[in-house]
Amino acid sequence: MHHELWTYSTIVIFLIVVAKVVSAKTSTVDVLWLILFGSLGVNFGILPQDNVILEGIGEWGIVFVMFALGFDENLGHFMKGMKRSIGIAVIGAAFPFMAGYYTAQMFGFDFYSSMIWGLTMTATAVSLTMVSLREENLHKSTASTAIMTAAVVDDVLSLIGLSILIPIILSATNGGSGVEASAIMIIVIKVIIFFIVMAFIGLVLFPDSLAKEKEKKHGVFFNFAMKIRKFTGIRKLLVTQNGKFTPLIMIFIAFTFGLLAEKFGFHPAIGAYFGGLFLKGEYFNVTVDKKILSHQNDAKKVMDHLAFTIFGPIFFLMLGTKLLFDMEIISNVLLPIFILFTSVLILQVVAAAVAAKYTGKYEWHESVMIGLGMLGRAELAFIVINIAYTQNQIISLEQFYILIGTLFLLNLTVPTAIKWWKPYYLGKEQFRLFGILLSRKENIYQEKMEK
């Protein structure tokens, strides 16, 4: 066992390095290559299909990934951008959800499986889209900002849906016939309490007693919280010993929030996301020799490496080991993959573009770019699949193949679609559909356009 662990660990790290190099060379998201190499590894007999230790490390990884994604998101910017992007996010999530749900129904899968299909299709990949936009020098454009905000709202909606849906499905499948109204009510109450607790910790207990806060007038509840902060102010932990242990404290926060989520019956990754989301840059400031220094960037680098370079990739690689080459299954899933991919592609682009135009008041050339940019599916989509198949067997192996295959195609489409639309976005070429000019009217250089 000891020998096998070191052998498999070496192979895993080697495959991660290869996946990282290939993704960088091809400007594609590394998650796809990690899952592919995991599948190749198990099918060629160099990786095990099941390994408790490696899968446990992978679970750490996905907690780090979700914590890092939350930490990377600025809560203030998110709230400011939400007003203009909320319509894009909701409509842009609803239609792909319906595409997933009704495609599953079309092929005879049950209600709970259909809900998983729908939920999997709602989480937009911010990182993949930003990489693709950066390759085309469009990462600071108006459309880029809209995509980022809407994608984050999509992910939050997916998190809420995941929090509610999985416990209900598990309650139904374990109970046999279905879910009673009282059981649903208990689950909903737990969800509400969970988010109230998350909000209370993040918005009331976490903030430190800064001077600017003391000048404001607050209610009794807030004043009580201020007294508690003397013992719980997160900055005191983060800057202990002048920040020497900041990454360790962040890991502790991620695990604590993950544990809290698990106690409420949710996946730890959900709690970890909120643990990262509520951390602010000011919490990392420390005064040394009358100079204010920040440990935020250093801590972020450490967490990003833990999440996206070391532990997180192990999760996706081990997820790929569930994909065994079975020609009978592969032949059965090709048609569902094609239909699901096509329906999500059309509905996602059209719904998000129309929502951007009429609810966000963007121009058509920006709206189409927003629709195309929201095609990618993020880490959260793979987490949904992992929870539904690997951990709880809510969906079958065949459905696992269908969902993974569709995510592959959607993510591969993003860089190609953005590159294709770039000349229309800049106005270098004209594009009309049903008499409507969708491209930019005039040709304006990128530097001038972004001013």
Characterise this structure.
By secondary structure, the chain is mainly alpha-helical. The chain has a two-stranded antiparallel ribbon. 74% of the residues lie in helices and 3% in strands. The chain is built from 19 helices and 4 strands. The protein has helices at 2-26, 30-43, 52-72, 75-106, 111-120, 126-135, 142-175, 181-205, 211-214, 220-232, 234-238, 246-263, 268-277, 296-320, 327-358, 364-373, 379-391, 397-426, 446-449; strands at 285-288, 291-294, 432-433, 436-437. 45% of the residues are buried. A hairpin with a 2-residue loop joins strand 1 (285-288) and strand 2 (291-294).
What are the key terms here?
mainly alpha; 74% helix; 451 residues; 19 helices; two-stranded antiparallel sheet; disordered C terminus
What's the short story on this structure?
With 451 residues, this protein is mostly helical. Helix content is 74%, strand content 3%.
| DSSP helix fraction | over 70%
Mean residue pLDDT: 79
**Radius of gyration, whole Å:** 23 Å
Write down how many β-strands occur, each being a DSSP E stretch of 2 or more residues: 4
Oligomer classification? single chain
- Count of discrete alpha- or pi-helical segments spanning 4 or more residues: 19
Which structural class should the secondary elements be placed in?
A: mainly alpha
| DSSP strand content | under 5%
Low-confidence stretches: 445-451
Distance, first to last CA: 60 Å
Strand order of the largest sheet: 1-2
Query: Topology as H/E string?
Result: HHHHHHHHHHHHHEEHHHHHEEH
Which descriptor suits the 3D outline?
globular
**Biggest sheet: strands, sense, closure?**
2 strands, antiparallel
